[in-house]
Amino acid sequence: MATIISGKELSASMKAEMAAAVKEFPAKYGRAPHLVVVLVGDDPASVSYVTGKAKASAEVGIRNTTIRRPAETGEAELLALIGELNVDDGVDGILVQLPLPKHIDEDRVIAAIRREKDVDGFHPLNVANLWLKQPCTLPCTPKGIIRMLQRAGVEIAGKRAVVIGRSNIVGLPVAKLLLDANATVTIAHSRTRNLPEVTREADILVVAIGRPRFVTADMVRPGAVVIDVGVNRDPGTGKLCGDVDYAAVEPLASVITPVPGGVGPMTIACLMENTVECFLRKMER
Ligand SMILES: Nc1nc(=O)c2c([nH]1)NC[C@@H]1CN(c3ccc(C(=O)N[C@@H](CCC(=O)O)C(=O)O)cc3)C=[N+]21
């Protein structure tokens, strides 16, 4: 029987704490923080994520503007919109929802966001500063994962951590944060040979590979801490499911995160935190 880390509960307490602080901002700074979310196209998953971000903003007292553009929007047009938001003093955070339509270069769009307003922590200068251990905006999902480990009282230093997945958004930055917390880190991926053998070495297993129920019981060391970053639709039921076969793995893990109600809500809470941090850095400059 594993301890289940509820991202739902932990994110709710983070949001409540932020709301109490943000309530004082209009009197202190003249206004509330303002997050602008840009959504290009109408992918249903993206629409639902963007709605989640607006809902969380309301809970915390952050002003949220969601700008929607048709899927055919040109890259130049999107870059022009970002340029306007960059120089708008009333905008503290800019998030461009990913993935973008194929005709738009995501890297170019991310790099166009003013670094001080990059609440995702995806801008090249934020990424560089993460790897140089300089002050930076941390990407929301990795930040949320570390928060969950801390909340569960998981000691990271000296442990073996295995991350499955090497994306810029989750795998690479979470590996860096675990390394900075003095874990011994392995980054595994689709081309890793003998993957079950590698993952069985893990005291802490972070799974961000994007395949429903990919991690089975034979891949997990008894007593391991298992963090499931997956957000998949079950091909059969259409329900949300993780990258971990939860029913099979939960009985042998010491600590595990569920899907839904795990890493996802923590990502959103950390996005709110990053928005508040960008706002405060600006106001205190
Ligand atoms: N620029 C950008 N920043 C992102 O942070 C970003 C993005 N693009 N593109 C897509 C991914 C995905 N993502 C999720 C956030 C919350 C949940 C979440 O809260 N999930 C709930 C369930 C939600 C539901 O029921 O659909 C849960 O796991 O309990 C899921 C996924 C942020 N992303």
From TrEMBL:
Sequence positions that bind NADP(+): G165, R166, S167, V231
Gene Ontology process terms (BP): L-histidine biosynthetic process; methionine biosynthetic process; purine nucleotide biosynthetic process; tetrahydrofolate interconversion
CDD domains, per the entry: NAD_bind_m-THF_DH_Cyclohyd
Domain Tetrahydrofolate dehydrogenase/cyclohydrolase catalytic, chain residue ranges per copy: 5-120
Annotated pathway: One-carbon metabolism; tetrahydrofolate interconversion
GO molecular function annotation: methenyltetrahydrofolate cyclohydrolase activity; methylenetetrahydrofolate dehydrogenase (NADP+) activity
Reaction(s) catalysed by this chain's protein: (6R)-5,10-methenyltetrahydrofolate + H2O = (6R)-10-formyltetrahydrofolate + H(+); (6R)-5,10-methylene-5,6,7,8-tetrahydrofolate + NADP(+) = (6R)-5,10-methenyltetrahydrofolate + NADPH
Gene3D superfamilies assigned to the protein according to its UniProt record, in alphabetical order: Leucine Dehydrogenase, chain A, domain 1, NAD(P)-binding Rossmann-like Domain
Keywords assigned: Amino-acid biosynthesis, Histidine biosynthesis, Hydrolase, Methionine biosynthesis, Multifunctional enzyme, NADP, One-carbon metabolism, Oxidoreductase, Purine biosynthesis
A GO CC term attached to the entry: cytosol
EC number: 1.5.1.5, 3.5.4.9
Domain Tetrahydrofolate dehydrogenase/cyclohydrolase NAD(P)-binding: 139-281
Description of how the protein assembles with itself and partners: Homodimer.
HAMAP family reported for this sequence: THF_DHG_CYH
Family: Belongs to the tetrahydrofolate dehydrogenase/cyclohydrolase family.
NCBIfam families attached to this UniProt entry: PRK14186.1
Biological function: Catalyzes the oxidation of 5,10-methylenetetrahydrofolate to 5,10-methenyltetrahydrofolate and then the hydrolysis of 5,10-methenyltetrahydrofolate to 10-formyltetrahydrofolate.
Protein name: Bifunctional protein FolD
Species per Swiss-Prot/TrEMBL record: Alistipes communis
